[in-house]
Design goal:
about 230 residues, two-stranded antiparallel sheet, 7 helices, mainly alpha
Length: about 230
Amino acid sequence: MSTTLSLTKYARIGPVSESSSGVERLKHLSVIILEDRLFVLLLVSTMTSRAGARPTATKTEGNDYKPKERGGPSPYQMSMSCRSEIKKLTLVQVLIWLLVAAQVTVTHLELVSHDLVAAPYQWQYPYLLSIVPSLLGAMAMPRHNISYLVISMISAGLFSVAPLLFGAMEMFPVAQQLYRHGKAYRFIFGYSAVSVMYLLMLVALQVHAWHLYYSKRLLDAWFDSTQDKKKK
């Protein structure tokens, strides 16, 4: 490009005659080089000004940003969360069941004195069936068996919650006597049996209530997952 411009300018200025001296030829050549440099600088300046005139992105404070709305947890996430909680609660249920079963077994086999471990109350015998809902719930988890889960929830109300409510009413007169007169007739390792049983029942009621709550949520998640598969 510079060669073409040089030739053009050389033609405009006019050729140097052969009779011209060397000084004149050098002057003529320096004029051409100077004009070439000025033209290049002008061209670069023009291109730079055009590049700088391009529209730039305006900075904002994020007010115009609208994040994508996200819905609630998916049925799969809900299922995994509920299953994890149910497993923990099931372990606590089994531990409570083992304590009740140990008391019933020890007293009936007369392994220890009744003064050390008192005889069980009537509500503790039907409560031994509370292991059934736990087993049904555990069997329902691997294959998402809705039928087993529903039966587990129903049997939990019958074999777990109902005996505890019956036991609260059964032991209420004894607890009232202990509170008013400070007299206890049954003991478990030196502690009042009615106090120990009420404490155990309080924990068991909370565990069974939370277990039913998470089982209901798990059941809803399985239903939602089934409906999504049918739509697809």
